[in-house]
Write a structure and sequence with these properties.
Length: 203
Amino acid sequence: MNHRANMLGVLLVAGVGLLLCAVPTQAQDAIPTCFVHPTFDSAIIDKLYVLRGVDLSIERKGHTRFDKYVSVLTRKGFKRKGYKFEFDGSSSVDSVTQENLSALSPEWIKTLGPAGARWVAMFVILDSAAGKTITAKAVCEMDIYVFDRVEGVVLYRSKDIIQVALGWMMTSGLAADEAMFGAINALVKKFPKRGEKPAPSSE
């Protein structure tokens, strides 16, 4: 509840983009929110399978374009970075919970994505809020995970919080879409190019 109140408070006082990298407070704090596994070598990732978006926010019913944005932005972004790509719209992510992401067990990781896939990416909305006073404003907090499902490990994790403010004629729903779009786009842009050595984990 306090986290939700903080998100809404930020929404009311700011309307500019914000990028955040912080240490999580749950059981997954062994994996920083800006994390690169020591064995991560982007050069050997022959194909990235991107799963449907996972929405763990209270406002999940309002994020009807999440999968569409994930598909479009990752297809363009990862291709430019030199990766072969496939959006996996068939594997179910409906059962993914915060508990799964807190524990991140090898057994669970190995269940993700289609049979035969090794490198699997997942975008997760952690929280979001939208409202309208004079202008329409929204904020979206999102993570990206990249898993090696053969080894059952997290190779890469990054976080962004994006805030937007639109004109008075715009709706809060449109602002929420813009924040979600911006978060996905920011996470894709930060992902290393194929063959590029990523920045080390950051606390």
